[in-house]
Amino acid sequence: MSSLRAADPENATVTLRAVLPAPTPALPATLPPAPAPLGTDPGPTGRPSPVRPGIAAFLVVLTCSLGFSTWAWQHHQSPGVLSWVTTVLWTAPILTSLLGLAGALRTRRTTRRAADEPAPPLVRDEFLLVVVPTIGRHDTYPALERVVRSYVEHLPTAFARLRVDVVVEEGCEAAAAIHLLATTLPMVRVLTVPAAYRTPAGTRFKARANHYAGIRRVAEGQVGDDVWVLHMDDDTGVDAHTARELARFVLAQRGPDALHLGQGVLTYPREHGAHRLLWLADAVRPASDVSVFAVSTGRGTPRAGLHGELLLVRASVEAAIGWDFGPRAMVEDAQFALNFCQAFPGRSGWFPARSLGAAPVSVHDFVKQRERWAWGLMELAANRAIPLRERLLLIHNMVIWAIGPLQHVGVILVVGALLGDLATLPVAGAVLPLWAVNFGYQVWTYWEGLKLNCRVSADPRRRFWERIAVVALMPVFSLWEAAGVLRGAVLFLRGGETAFAVIAKPR
Fold this sequence. Notes:
Elements: H1 9-17, H2 56-76, H3 81-89, H4 94-116, E1 127-133, H5 141-154, E2 162-169, H6 175-184, E3 188-193, H7 205-219, E4 227-231, H8 240-251, E5 261-267, H9 276-281, H10 284-289, H11 292-298, E6 311-314, H12 315-321, H13 332-343, E7 348-356, H14 363-381, H15 388-402, H16 404-407, H17 409-419, H18 432-455, H19 464-472, H20 474-494
Parallel strand pairs: 1-2, 1-4, 2-3, 5-7
Antiparallel strand pairs: 4-6, 5-6
Helix pairs in contact: 1-7, 2-18, 4-11, 4-18, 14-15, 14-20, 18-19
């Protein structure tokens, strides 16, 4: 494979030297032998993958929904004004549902093949750099310590050459504790972003930290094709399964058709959730990873976006793209994805690895998190610097997400009561199968997401009440999601100063 080079690396080095007298020498690339051979961890081959989704829940809900709606249509059809509204709003997500179902089937095939393959050997030639940006507050430090320890414990079983870079802001609250952690753990170093550091385009927030870490790698000469950068959040850890699947993916990218980017699944162990209700509400996220994101990223062009965690990128490719997206960039991972689609079409992949995250600690934080995502994605969808063809899927997804508050069944019924018209059946019976698919997929995302989160928990059993609650409370969860999207849409339309809310991280 031809070597890739950073975009203007000399200029990047000059920018670095403007804020630092000299770059800190890199840590030794070669580490002591791995503590144990790969493949001795729990989860031997031949067993179902912990991120393999089922389809039974979708088929059951689809059948029941279609049967009931057909019966209602035949016996109680009396279209009104509200019927025209529901015909449009409740049919609109069909493309997302079909993409998600295609992705789920693709994931089942991928995980079935992975389960039959032997454990990969220790990766000795490629260098893995884990980058963990953190705001460095006292309330985020316990989660940071948990995840950094997980990298040091598990990743050396798969990679002989490894380093963990914790990226902090100069003068952050927990600086002393973070530096102490780095001195007590092997392979860990702290990169401090100087307060005076500015990117050429004025990027802020997490993208600024990522860009700084990137130009440090350029200055230290660690941007070869054999260097892989694993981006993680400061509340997202790994385990032995993650290490094994990362190694399998990296070892497969050595031929002429090698991929340059890969991503896996973000899951939420039960023990990482501060509140069980919020843990149930976030069940939708791993299901999205094994469905919509699996088909988008897995087919080579991640137009649906990327997550900032468990994002594996070849260092040479990251250096060529960079993270300098301008002052309004709040969803740097999604913007990196669209830039990647332009520069390296067809070169991304999806792998069945899991990362271990944590749900928000309060409803307020849950809504604030969704607000930032919605605001940032709307900014990105409206960014004309990116070709329209790369933004089309994102624009579609954002329209569906933005009208989410109007799709909520509670909102529909309130409007119907005000109009004196509670007839919500569609104006045409041909729409009923589409409604059934949409409803079946929506229920499936929470049902399967709960199953995936339970599988990665210390106690993998799904309680009977959890299965009932995650479906029964879907209207509540969707209302929280809608509140965040609505707030984000208002902030986007106002066009004011952007902000990057960092929520508290559970232990």
